[in-house]
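Lecture notes, part 5. Sequence design as translation. It can be helpful to think of inverse folding as translation between two languages: the language of shapes and the language of residues. The source text, in structure tokens, appears below.
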């Protein structure tokens, strides 16, 4: 069984930039076992890895339609533990954006093997298929799982 699933919108929608749905909302990315809480405005720009083409973000940023529209995101890799595989909940723009979902826990014993290969293929295909397609990779906070996947790519 595959660790990742890929969700594509209708062919008529695929690859077009998202349009703004309204202002972002400031939200906390939570306080967990690390003993800290990060207040992050939803409008904070994600880390730009490849100029205008590849970004690393948090779940808050990945759920901000205005920010995604501004960045012209066409593809999202969702590697947060809470991602689901039926297109609801944590993939809120699945009708407009191509998703690759591969949730795994944020701990040292997580096996990233399947996710590394599948997300690399998803990212590489998106970036090489069209010069205007933009990929955003996110986990909960945008600092460990998403970074590991992008570093491998």
């Amino acid at each position: 069984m595959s660790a990742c699933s890929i969700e594509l919108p209708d062919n008529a929608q695929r690859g077009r930039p998202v349009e703004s749905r309204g202002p972002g909302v400031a939200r906390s990315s939570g306080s967990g076992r690390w003993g800290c809480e990060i207040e992050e405005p939803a409008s904070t720009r994600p880390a730009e890895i490849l100029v205008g083409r590849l970004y690393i973000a948090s779940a808050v940023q990945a759920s901000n339609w205005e920010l995604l529209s501004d960045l012209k995101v066409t593809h999202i890799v969702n590697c947060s533990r809470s991602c689901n595989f039926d297109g609801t909940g944590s993939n809120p723009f699945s009708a407009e954006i191509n998703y690759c979902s591969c949730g795994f826990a944020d701990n040292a014993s997580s096996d990233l093997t399947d996710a590394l290969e599948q997300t690399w293929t998803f990212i590489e295909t998106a970036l090489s298929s069209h010069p205007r397609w933009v990929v955003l990779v996110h986990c909960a906070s945008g600092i460990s799982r998403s970074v590991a996947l992008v570093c491998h790519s």
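The translated text above is only one of many valid answers, since several sequences can fold into similar shapes. The chain has a mean pLDDT of 74.
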